[in-house]
Amino acid sequence: MTTRATRAPRVRPERPAPTLRERLFGGGAAGEPSRFERALYHLVLIASCIVLVGPFLMVISASLKESGQLFEYPPRWLPFPPYLGQYEKLLTDSAFPRWMFNTLFVGTIVTVAKVFLDSMAGYAFAKLHFVGRNVFFLLMIAMLLVPYGAIILPLYTVSHALGIHDTYLALILPPLCNPLGVFLMRQVISMLPRDLENAARLDGVSEFGIYRRIVLPLIKPSLVVLAIITFTDMYMSFIWPLVAVRDTDLQVLTVGVASMRNMTSVNFSLWSAAAVLGMVPLALAFFLFQRQFQARSIAGALKQ
User: Fold this and answer.
1) DSSP assignment, residue 9?
2) Of 282, 261, 281, 283, the residue nearest 271 (C-alpha)
3) How confident is the model over 167-176, as pLDDT tens digits?
4) Distances, alpha carbon 266 to alpha carbons 92, 260, 262, in Å
5) Highest mean pLDDT among 106-120, 139-153, 251-265, 275-289
6) Are 119 and 223 spatial neighbours (Cβ–Cβ below 8 Å)?
7) Do 285 and 296 meet the contact criterion of CB atoms below 8 Å apart?
8) Dihedrals φ, ψ of 77, to 5°?
């Protein structure tokens, strides 16, 4: 007598309970946002763009109006025809071109010098072994914790004692002592593999040759990031240029534009035109080096 094998009943997998996201925004494939979520994301992005871009558009609109047109009601966001008299007055009747030259001149010199010096110091702290390396690095990190306002008076005293007060050197030398660039370069260079430098040393390459031929090509995106940070910081600096320089021919853009309130009557259109022209170099610098900046950001994200 044969017996038939009984089959075990199929157990259907239980459907997991809906998550809070599915209850609030509806279903959809796993990991894919629903239509409501997409619409909500776009609304948040549009609102953020309006909040961020709105003030810039208002400043540009104000710079293209006469002084009396700013208080018209209802306001005209796009004046037609645009009034360019504020830009003409700014470029001819004020020292704005001189302020812009001083800012670009000082910012370029400091940026080039900081990229060169900070990368070399970062290589020394990351790859070379010398007595007191860790102590010096900790002291440098401690300098980052000191508020900038606490060193204004010592900087002024030292610059006056050296005889560089009210000169270009007073605007160039103090920013070179900022240790932030050294710290960034040290962190980047320490991630490079030691096999490359060891192989170069076996071939008889000097330390400066290793730095110039091997390290610099590998950290180009980081150098661009450091250059953008340094140039932006110098371009927007106000406190130290205000203290270090009194001669109007040596004033930078931030100090010069701030002094326009004392030199002219209340003219918001003129000040808006100065703000628009002041944004142009920073925007050009960012768009020119945008690829390197993004490459450094992506490389950092992949390493993490």
Assistant:
1) P
2) 261
3) 899 999 999 9
4) 18, 9, 9
5) 106-120
6) yes
7) no
8) -75, -35
